[in-house]
Structures are given as structure tokens and as C-alpha cells.
Amino acid sequence: MLLITCPFCGPRPELEFGYAGEAHVVRAQDPRDVSDSQWTEYLYQRSNVRGVHAERWRHAHGCAQFFNALRDTTTDHFVATYRIGESRPDAAVEAGR
Ligand SMILES: [Zn+2]
Predict the structure, then answer these.
(1) What pLDDT, on a 0 to 100 scale, did the predictor assign at position 95?
(2) What separation in Å is there between the alpha carbon of 62 and the centre of ligand 1?
(3) Looking at the domain that runs over 3-94, which CATH code has it been given?
(4) What's residue 17's pLDDT?
């Protein structure tokens, strides 16, 4: 069974979690200030990384909190998890060093 470490609760079974999209996608302060193509990019364009990817997850059947995770999409290994508002862990963490 895959365990995901919730930053609030600790390791829990993956069945308690839900994927919530790519992390660090920044919404414009005022959507009226951006062009249609910039708004379309915000809504629909995602990086679709092969390798370590920053993702947003929710501990839906636990504390219900959203958090970010670095997950290797080729191995399904969770490299790190961190709270919303915290900066993405550095490259050393991503490489498992
Ligand atoms: Zn939790």
C-alpha cells in the first residue's frame, strides 16, 4: 500500500487522498488585466512533467487540508510533501539526497 505523508497528520494510506492538480499555478490578481490567451493558459495549460512534479493534494478522508507534494511521475514515489504557502523544497530533496 502506498503511504502519503500528510504535513498535518503524518503517513496515511493513499486511499484517504485526492489529487487536486498541478501546484504553484498562480491566478491573476484581477482576471480583467490579462489577455484571453493568458487566461486560457492559466485555465488549461499544465506542464505534464515526466519526473518530479509539484502537485496539489487533499487529505479528503482525514484532516481535509490541501497541501503540495513533489511526486515522481515515473515511479509514483512521493519525494516530499509541504504545506500550502511554503516554498517548493530544493533540488537536493528532489534528487533524494
Ligand atoms: Zn491530514
Answers:
(1) 56
(2) 5
(3) 3.30.2270.10
(4) 98
